Structure formats: C-alpha cells, structure tokens
C-alpha cells in the first residue's frame, strides 16, 4: 500500500509540475479588449470590465439620488428630474489611482445648465473613485458592490466613491510600445496591446502575392526600450512561404519615440495555395507579456529566387544598353551616309 501511495503522490507531483511548466511556456500576448471599459492598474496589468458595462449602482441622498451606470454615465435623480453629470466614452479617462483608490473614471459633457463655462465648457462632470473590495467604512459587502459616498466640489462636479469586486488582473502590458505600418498610417500594436484585426489571422484582409515586403516601425518609452528583444516569426503552414525579418528592429535595437526601429518583413511565395499563409510575429519583452500579432499573405503563384530576379533585371539592363548603343551607331551611320549622298 505504501508503494502504491508513493507512486500516486509521485504521479500527482509530475502532473502538477507539467501543468506549471505548460502555463509558464504558453504565455500569451495582450489584445485590446472589445470595449473601451478597461484600465491598467499600477503594475501595468490589464483589468477588463467589459462585462460590467451598464451595471447600475444607486446612492440614496438627502435631496437627490446619484446613479452610476458603469462605463456609461452618472446621473443625479430627484423629483425635479434627472441631471446628467457626464458620459463615458473611449476618449474619457479610466486610469489607475493611488492610495486606497485603485482606479479612477472620469465622466464629461454632462448637462450645461448653469455650468456653461466650467471645465473647458464640458458642462457637469463626475469623478468615480473605484475601490477594489469593500468601502472603507465597512459598507457594501455584497457581490456587486455599491456607492460608498458622494461629495460635490461644486454644483457642476461630483466625486463618487464606488466599491466593487474588481476583475482578476490579467497579463502585464508593456505600456507605451507601438508597432505600425511605415510610413505611419495604421497601428498594429498601440500602448502595448495588439489592436483588433491583428490579434488573430483574418483571411479576408491579406497582403497580395505581388507585395514582396511590408515595412513596420517600432517605438517605445526611451527608459524601457532596452527591454525589447529580437522578434520571432512563425508561419502556418510551415512550408510554402519564406519569411525573413530585416532592419534594425530585427537585430534587437532599442526602439524609441525619437529614434524608431524599422522591421522589414520580407516574404516570398514558394508554393501557391488558395488560402492565405498566416505569419505570426512575436516580440518578447523582458518582465512583460510578449507582444504578438498576425499578418496574412496570399500566394496565388510561386515567385522566383531573389537572386534570379536580380540576374533577370541585370540581363534586361545589359540588353537595353546594347540596344541603345546599336541604335546610336545606326543613327550615326545613317546620318553620315545621308551626308555623303547629298554631297555627291
């Protein structure tokens, strides 16, 4: 029996170790959430509150009630009616707090009545200080949370303290890191998060066979740029598309805002197929989740070796030069012959 127990214990230990190692080696990148209702905490970890959008919290006040619709708006409700204290959109602030406040939401563009000239003419505004857990006074021990306190800086601005059970922090985001198409036109990665359309392969948006390469630029905060490592590329299917990474970005040169790195994705079709090839580029970052994105490439026909193409252009150039020399000689000979005939 002891031997059986020892074998079972050893088996459980091996399974646990294998599970740990599998999680350690399958760290994924961070894709931007589907909504703008998210924030990065003080350790740069992602908190996604997309499932909380519209969740209602009510605070019973003496003269009026304050109602928060999470990631939507803040209202004051009384018998006289509703007063809007601001709305939330993707341009509003949802940032990390300090001290007992974990996160801060800002709401702008509320009702203008008697607040036409306050806060850069943005009407009534509200600041929601979010505490992950319970209120400091011990209130609000329910699952969905509640409003702990409401104060008014003026008739045009409300400060609301909200306690909620925050989402579990996600991966650590390398803030300030950007990858985009060069010349600058579209961002693939913004603020360390892969943008929609590049977080997974999309066969409907593929580069054509004729496009021999794609140039990308990389930028990061100067003080953290040395954490960026050399990119790694994987292709699926593995055979049929040759991909090379060139440029300063491929060598691991630290990219900064003032001195961006360039990453040239050079690809060549070795085998034609009806579906696009999937090109996965991963940029490891020391101490953070890796940056990962996908590009897709069509191969409707095979392409010659780069050397063959170079030799082809060289041959074309030589033939063109010979043709130009012969044309010049022919014209000169014709002119000389015509001159002699006219003199006779």
TrEMBL record:
Keywords: Membrane, Signal, Transmembrane, Transmembrane helix. The keyword DNA damage does not apply. Coiled coil: none annotated. Residues 1-26 form the signal peptide. The chain crosses the membrane at residues 313-337. The lineage of its organism: Eukaryota, Viridiplantae, Streptophyta, Embryophyta, Tracheophyta. This is G-protein coupled receptor.
């Amino acid at each position: 029996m002891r031997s059986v127990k020892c074998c079972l214990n050893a088996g459980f230990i091996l399974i646990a170790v294998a599970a740990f190692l599998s999680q350690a080696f399958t760290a994924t990148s961070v894709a931007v959430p589907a909504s703008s209702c998210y924030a990065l905490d003080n350790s740069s970890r992602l908190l996604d509150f997309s499932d909380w959008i519209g969740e209602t919290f009510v605070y019973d006040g003496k003269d009026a009630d304050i109602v928060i619709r999470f990631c939507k708006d803040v209202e004051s409700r009384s018998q006289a009616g509703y007063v809007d204290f601001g709305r939330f959109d993707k341009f509003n602030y949802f940032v990390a707090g300090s001290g007992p406040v974990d996160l801060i939401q800002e709401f702008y563009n509320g009702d203008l009545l008697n607040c036409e000239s306050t806060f850069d003419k943005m009407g009534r505004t509200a600041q929601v200080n979010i505490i992950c857990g319970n209120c400091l006074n011990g209130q609000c021990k329910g699952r969905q949370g509640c409003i702990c306190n409401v104060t008014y800086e003026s008739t045009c601005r409300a400060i609301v303290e909200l306690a909620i059970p925050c989402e579990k922090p996600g991966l650590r985001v390398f803030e300030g890191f950007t990858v985009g198409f060069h010349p600058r036109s579209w961002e693939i990665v913004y603020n360390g998060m892969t943008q929609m359309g590049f977080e997974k392969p999309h066969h409907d948006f593929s580069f054509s066979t004729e496009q021999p390469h794609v140039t990308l630029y990389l930028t990061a905060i100067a003080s953290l740029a040395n954490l960026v490592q050399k990119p790694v590329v994987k292709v699926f299917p593995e055979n049929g598309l040759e991909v090379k990474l060139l440029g300063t970005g491929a060598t691991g040169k630290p990219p900064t805002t003032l001195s961006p790195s360039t990453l040239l994705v050079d690809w060549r079709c070795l085998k034609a197929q009806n579906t696009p090839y999937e090109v996965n580029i991963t940029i490891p970052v020391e101490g953070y989740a890796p940056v990962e994105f996908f590009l897709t490439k069509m191969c409707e026909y095979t392409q010659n070796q780069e050397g063959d193409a170079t030799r082809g252009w060289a041959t074309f150039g030589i033939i063109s030069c010979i043709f130009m020399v012969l044309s010049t000689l022919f014209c000169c000979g014709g002119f000389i012959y015509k001159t002699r005939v006219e003199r006779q």
